[in-house]
Fold this sequence. Notes:
The protein is α/β, with parallel strands linked by helices. The protein folds into two domains: 3-229, Rossmann fold, CATH 3.40.50.10260; 236-481, Ribokinase (UDP-N-acetylmuramoyl-L-alanine:D-glutamate ligase), CATH 3.40.1190. Helices cover 42% and strands 14% of the residues. The chain is built from 20 helices and 17 strands. It has helices at residues 15-27, 32-50, 65-79, 97-106, 121-129, 148-160, 205-209, 223-227, 236-239, 269-280, 295-301, 313-320, 338-349, 359-362, 368-376, 388-394, 402-413, 448-461, 466-484, 490-508; strands spanning 56-61, 83-88, 111-112, 132-136, 164-167, 189-193, 211-215, 231-233, 257-261, 285-290, 306-309, 325-330, 353-356, 382-384, 416-419, 425-427, 433-435. α10 (269-280) links the parallel β9 (257-261) and β10. Ligand NAX binds next to α1, α2 and α3. Residues 18-19, 21-22, 35-36, 39, 62-69, 138-146, 150, 167-168, 193, 217 line the site of ligand NAX.
Amino acid sequence: MNPDIVFSNAVLLTPEEMGQADRLTISGGVPGIELMERAGQAVARAAAKMVPAAARISILCGPGNNGGDGFIAARCLTAAGHTVQIHLLKASETLNGDALEAFVRMGLPHTVVPDGDGIAVSLAGELERADLIIDALFGAGLDRPLAGPGLALVKAVNRSGRRVLAVDLPSGVNGATGADPGAAVRADATVTFFRRKPGHLLNPGRTLCGSVTVADIGIKAGVLEKIGPSVFHNIPELWLGDWPRPDPLGHKYTRGHAVVFGGPMSATGAARLSAGAALRAGAGLVTLASPPDAMMVNACHLTAVMLKKVPGAEAMEELLADRRFNTVLIGPGYGVGEETRAAVAAILKQKRATVLDADALTSFPNHAQELFTLIGDNPAPVLLTPHDGEFARLFPDIEGDKLVRARRAAERSGAVVVLKGPDTVIAAPDGRAAINDNAPPFLATAGSGDVLAGISAGLLAQGVPGFEAACQAVWLHGEAGREAGPGLIAEDLAPALKAAIRALVDKTAGG
Length: 511
Ligand SMILES: NC(=O)C1=CN([C@@H]2O[C@H](COP(=O)(O)OP(=O)(O)OC[C@H]3O[C@@H](n4cnc5c(N)ncnc54)[C@H](O)[C@@H]3O)[C@@H](O)[C@H]2O)[C@@H](O)CC1
Ligand SMILES: Nc1ncnc2c1ncn2[C@@H]1O[C@H](COP(=O)(O)OP(=O)(O)O)[C@@H](O)[C@H]1O
Ligand SMILES: [K+]
């Protein structure tokens, strides 16, 4: 990975790390109120784009700096000719620091939400008539589930059915995990500052944010050197430097040869999907190794993918002795049980780049440590691509949010773990992690995961390092899903991959 990535827009910061960026900037000579001014002005600009001229805007302000951003936005929007109603969750006497300064600078009339578990009918009515509600209740400082008037206000906002702009995060969403313990605001748009947080990408946070924009508030990227971020947004910027560009003087063997081990006659489709995707992802050659009974059906369906008959363990070892097969994929449609465990062990002992998916994961619940030892002894990259169910079987004691679970699993197994779903997390044993957000829900279709495993193998075959190959594969899978669009089935993904790769290569003009 390019070391400059820690300064890039792909960086994600936890609320604590964002606080550190804030403190480093302030100690570097930029007053906190200046950061808050820029943040509040960015919120006002975003709000102005969401409403007509002379609109009615209700701004809900919490007791901390999130509320401070709200006061600045209120001042700017009033100056721009909008009618702004300001509601404080706590009396202004409780404000301090930059938020108090922002309140004083605002100098506009406001009301304080009375204590209790409900809100006044008049406030609920006002929210229902607003052209826009700005949620500046809680952001990075949320440290417990909402309760009392804060909770009542959030519920009223969601009941109002009006457009909502959240400041930094929808109130109630945990910036580090995306969790919404209790309740949270459902926003149409969110303006955050400097860099995104994991909670903007992990569900349910991502859905609650609506569209996210990141405003520059004058924090310099240089502060990131001290913070040392390790969690990233899975965007091309993160891994473009490792994108495998074919050597103009090369040949098919210089692009790698992936072998996919397929299942018996009754379950051949999954491995074929993987093999086709590996070829589309750029592997120079792909061989589908099948048991004898599956040869005919595979032969009837395949053209560019090559076939090899593998009647048993001995034949498998013979095939793997050929070092030109530089990447192995096993699992899709392979079958669950002891034979699969033995096959996986034989593969990992060959110390090749390896992708273990589906049945290759499901075969190990009571033998997980055995698997992790084999992975630890293999210096080549190993990718595990579980969905939540497969993950729970392999790592039954690992709990927590998705980011924490994927990172712990990677650390324990020594593999790159791709924990799949709408917000797939890719985690490396060295602590790096990336969160993906480009996958459309149409990807939840039979065989879609087999395609992802195949793309991963195709990239590993071209020599891409494990973490980067997994990130590239997950992103391309998402792009292929968007390209194929509604109504897609897994067979559509490999052809759509061509357009996704073309768009990527055109963008980088790197060929
Ligand atoms: N770089 C930065 O860190 C910047 C931060 N800014 C704003 O500052 C915000 C963070 O400010 P704060 O750290 O003051 O945090 P918040 O304003 O998000 O909330 C903190 C306050 O809310 C209370 N609180 C937390 N959870 C609660 C709950 N569930 N119920 C009731 N009260 C609760 C806390 O005790 C504290 O008083 C960011 O979200 C952003 O909007 C901006 O002003 C610009 C710069
Ligand atoms: N709601 C969703 N939104 C986006 N992507 C999804 C969603 N649900 C599943 N996916 C993706 O679809 C793929 C499904 O893989 P998997 O569960 O292994 O299915 P299969 O075994 O049928 O191939 C994964 O890459 C996953 O991230
Ligand atoms: K907020």
